[in-house]
Amino acid sequence: MIDSSGLAPFHLDETGEADPSHCLYLFDRDMEQVAHVFEEHHAESHGHGWEGLAESLVSSRMQAPLRV
Predict the structure, then answer these.
(1) Gap between the Cα atoms of 49 and 43, Å rounded
(2) What tens digit of pLDDT does each residue of 9-38 get?
């Protein structure tokens, strides 16, 4: 299992080890709590912004290469 605490506010869902796969989730209530971070960096907190953040987090925190 992967320690997903470094991926907050995203939530990681993993399948079994025989056929490993991962799914990263983000819920509305979690977006609202950190939307101010986008504003502080003059970025928009829309789908493309969150997708970019998710890709950056995954590629910097996960050992396997990112496949989108």
Answers:
(1) 7
(2) 888 887 767 777 778 888 888 888 888 888
Cβ neighbours for 7, distance < 8 A, ≥ 6 positions apart: 24, 57, 58, 61
- Please answer whether residues 50 and 26 qualify as being in contact, where contact means their C-beta atoms are separated by less than 8 angstroms: yes
pTM for this entry: 0.59
Q: Nearest Cα to 4, choosing from 18, 19, 14?
A: 14
- Compute the distance between CA of residue 58 and CA of residue 48 in angstroms, rounded to an integer: 15
**Of 45, 63, 42, the residue nearest 53 (C-alpha):** 45
